[in-house]
Write a structure and sequence with these properties.
Helices cover about 95% and strands about 0% of the residues. By secondary structure, it is mainly α. It has one domain. The N and C termini lie far apart (about 150 Å).
């Protein structure tokens, strides 16, 4: 009976050794998987960061181009208004030139 008990104890010890080896192997695999997951995560973060930057640059370009177009339209409007006012002033000067000359001459002669 002692032989049977010893045999069973030996068998249990062998089984425990096998389980310990399996546990060590699984622990190593888990560590490797964590490393792979970390590398994959960092890679995905870099990829998403680049995509986000590209989207931000594209959006900024759209905003800048819209602002430039609006500024150009506003500038053209200001130039048109300035040209119109200048033409109006020139027209008034031309229309009243003789009266202005008479007024200047009269003012000088009175002095």
């Amino acid at each position: 009976m002692a032989d049977v008990a010893e045999s069973k104890v030996t068998e249990i010890i062998k089984t425990l050794n096998v389980l310990e080896g399996n546990l060590d192997s699984l622990t190593g695999k888990v560590v490797d998987m964590k490393k792979q997951l970390t590398v994959k995560t960092l890679s995905e973060i870099d990829l998403l960061l680049e995509k986000t930057r590209a989207m931000a640059i594209k959006e900024a370009e759209v905003i800048i181009n819209a602002s430039k177009e609006k500024a150009n339209l506003e500038s053209a409007k200001i130039v048109r208004e300035g040209d119109s006012k200048l033409a109006e002033i020139e027209s008034n000067v031309n229309a009243n030139f003789n009266d202005m000359v008479k007024h200047v001459v009269t003012t000088i002669l009175k002095a």
